[in-house]
Amino acid sequence: MVQVKVGLPSSTGQSQLNLTQKNGKAHFIEHKGHSRTHLPKVDYSVIHAIPGRIRLRVPRLRHNPDYAQRLQVLLEADALVTSFRLKPAAASVAVTYNPKTVSEFKLRHHLGHVFQSAAEVVVLKPTKHKTTKATETSWPGLQLSGAATALAVLGGPLGLPISPIFMVGTISLATLPVLQRAWKGITVERKLNIDFLDLIAIAITTIQGRFLAPALMLSLIDIGEKIRDRTARCSAQQTLDLLSSLGQFAWVERDAQKQQIPIHEVQRGDIVIVYPGEQVPVDGKILRGKALLDEQKLTGESVPVLKTKGQNVFASTLVREGRMYILTEKVGHDTLAGKSLQLMEQAPVHDTRMENYAATVAQRTVLPTLLLGTAVFALTRNPARAASVLTLDFATGIRVSVPTTVLAALTHAAQRGVLIRSGRALEQLAQVDTIVFDKTGTLTQGEAAVVGVESLNPAVSSVRVLQLAATAEQRLTHPVAEAVMRYAEAHKVEMLPRSKWDYQLGLGVKAEIDGETVFVGSERFLRLQEVDMSGLEGRQKPASAIYVGSNGQLLGIIEYSDLLRPESREVISRLLTVENVEVHMLTGDNKQTASAVAAQLGIAPINTHAEAFPEQKATVVRELHEQNKTVAFVGDGINDSPALAYADVSVSFANGSDIARETADVVLMHNNLHGLLEAIAIARQTKQLIQQNTGIIAIPNLAALMVAVFFGLNPLAATVVNNGSTVVAGVNGLRPLLQPKNS
């Protein structure tokens, strides 16, 4: 075991950061105490910063390769860093991060410690075992059928001297996948499938020496299979690891020492320490400390809650402010977030290929077509006429045209900013008659916003109330404080000089401004500061507000709320009136808040479900599904993932949680609900095109079949009719791609 100590500055003196490597895993150990040596400070400066990305200059990178390597390893292991780019020659490092997880100010402070740590810490990178995955060599079916078609054209219409044996061999090789699928249908599925019909038609025409017909048929079959596989949703989609969504490391207190260990090593009974900007990695109870927790991704509550000693906290929630020591009770998949993931994994897995009525009808025509071909042969003793009957099946055209149409629709949707993952999702979306929305972050913006400022003192204007509040709360990371600052900036309110200030977690802030002692916070906070609150008597208090007082007098009130998305009313109205869809709303908020939002949107009270945790959300979706409704669920949080998985079709946003985004069948890349209307319109248009294509294929094939049965038809002519209708249907299916992207 290797252990190295390095001193870092702290507010209480010196602390030491140790890095040990044991059993191939890196452990960070922090000791309180005094450092024996004074380390040279690592200089750095900020070159450029925008929300989510910051670029810094670190001169030591230019002339110290070892330092650059150590810094790279530390940044790779840092849970707050999304990605980074080191340029030693330019002495710069660019870091991307999630601004919702950590503020720019705190990230700068954190990176300062990282830069200092890299100066002396010897970082031993865990050995990465390179896994070599054998590359599966797929059967070159399309290439073989293409070669067979080319040879048939050269040896047939063009009259070149090509050996029949060579052409038969090429056709035989290209037919092997068809033979395998036909054999599987007989031996495993116990039925005669479409491939069996194709196999017989190919065999008869090949034996007769009509090489162009089977070769062309094989080419179109292979093209259809390729397109169908392209539209299929990958059944082996990677399993989402709960721990990776929470970060890679956690701080624990063991043997009176603070250790940063891999999250999967945290055990029940461990004391876990969570700092500002970090996600809680376990379910447990607070032993000491207090923190302001953002539980939106888990419960849907848009406003952070203050939790103190003795209260329960849950994995995946974010510490906005404060610090907690948590007694671990549940870890990994036993946590509330983990159970949400298990619910998702237990959801029924649907077929990844598009199941539609046309394909079902086509499959049912196999046996009648086979019997009809046999009867024609028995009556006429003409294998060519029998082969013509077998060639004129509806299934081949449908197998090609349906995937082509779906692929064109998926491409068109992507061009419009809507990612639809599969043909099945497209089909279900076209049939949706019920849509369930999560409220927070889906119908609402998911963050606090000031909706009004009111003065309660005749001598003070509302602008002055806002000015005092914004000055007092500047640089605080509380969501309501940030909302007040945004509102003040939008109204071009000038900040005043602020001297002393004291922020009390979960209550409010006290500040000296312009010679006044200003209090901004909850009603309880102002009462504790002995502010006269008699101005509130007889007034109806808003659901969410902060109060502003000065020198013992109440000055005003600032009301805030989680505002609706600008497009929510229009989209809900369109769904209810034009699309004739039943709309439900699910939320973790209380009934009063949920009812108020539902009333603004025109959602019926009976379809509003409040105080819903992940299990209840999944239950609501299941119950609607059991009523024979085709249900779409729209959500963006970890708490939405079970409901997303149980829905017939699930919709999320590009900026939603990782689990929600990966679970969803449809992702709205522009983070706008209008994309949902786009997706439904495209899906319904695709359904109409498939119905049109079914007619384009069925009518000429049925007419040619009648001719083949009663008068006889050359197999090549039958192939032209069959494949010609397929081509026409395929071109018709490409119509979505011809539409303007911004139509």
TrEMBL record:
Membrane topology of the entry: Multi-pass membrane protein
An MF annotation (GO) of this entry: ATP hydrolysis activity
Alphabetical keyword list: ATP-binding, Cell membrane, Membrane, Metal-binding, Nucleotide-binding, Translocase, Transmembrane, Transmembrane helix
Organism: Fischerella muscicola CCMEE 5323
Record gene name: cadA
Location in the cell: Cell membrane; Membrane
Family: Belongs to the cation transport ATPase (P-type) (TC 3.A.3) family. Type IB subfamily.
Superkingdom in the source lineage: Bacteria
Positions of the P-type ATPase A domain: 249-345
Pfam families on file: E1-E2_ATPase (PF00122), Hydrolase (PF00702)
Name the record gives this protein: Heavy metal translocating P-type ATPase
Main location: membrane
